[in-house]
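Lecture 7 notes: from sequence to structure.
We start with the chain below.
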Amino acid sequence: MDNILIISIGFLAQGLFFMRTITQWFKSEKEGEVISPVIFWQLSLVGSILMLTYGILRGDFAIVVGQFLVYSIYIRNLQLKKAWTRMHWIAKTIAIAVPLAYLGWLIFSGNFNSILRNKDVTLFWMIWGTAAQMVFISRFFYQWIYSEKEKESLLPLGFWIISTVGSLMIFTYSIARLDPVLFAAHSLGLFIYTRNILLHFGRGSLFTHLNNIPVLNKLIGKVSDKIK
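Predicted structure tokens for the same chain:
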């Protein structure tokens, strides 16, 4: 497949991931505390399917394994938010069927072994990239366990600390792999992770500085109210 198309799929996936982070951050800044909106998990599902597609086409073992491991946690959070049952049955069927179809295809077609033995990735960088993905996605396992304990979908402090560490690791991996998708995504994401950490420690919202601009403050409020 044309490399431009593959990169486009990757950027679209990361665009959705970045959009989920932006909406979560925006809502949290407005409320002055860390919020876990439904749209964060909805965008995660769609973005994960696209990112899985990108990882398969690019032959990137680290990306493929990472997306497979974290996918079910997105669905579980939608269940905790009582949003999964409200989704159309077609959307739920696609959300479950697509990753299962990919997994079956990878195993029975023999493509899983070709991804694992990608000659474009040295053993060191494959191990580093996989470790980076494991650290990065472990934030969702931590978040899932924490949310199950609290009986609601939350994004605790540990989630953002793990996000920062994992993102820095993937950032170095993206340089070694010359991967513009991962490079761009994790360059932008670090700001959001840092802001959420500061919000957890009670640092004021950045939007408080806009209180003296009524029109802009009102617009921010309207946009925030649309994020559920």
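Points to note: The chain has nine helices and no strands. The CA atoms of residues 151 and 167 lie 28 Å apart.
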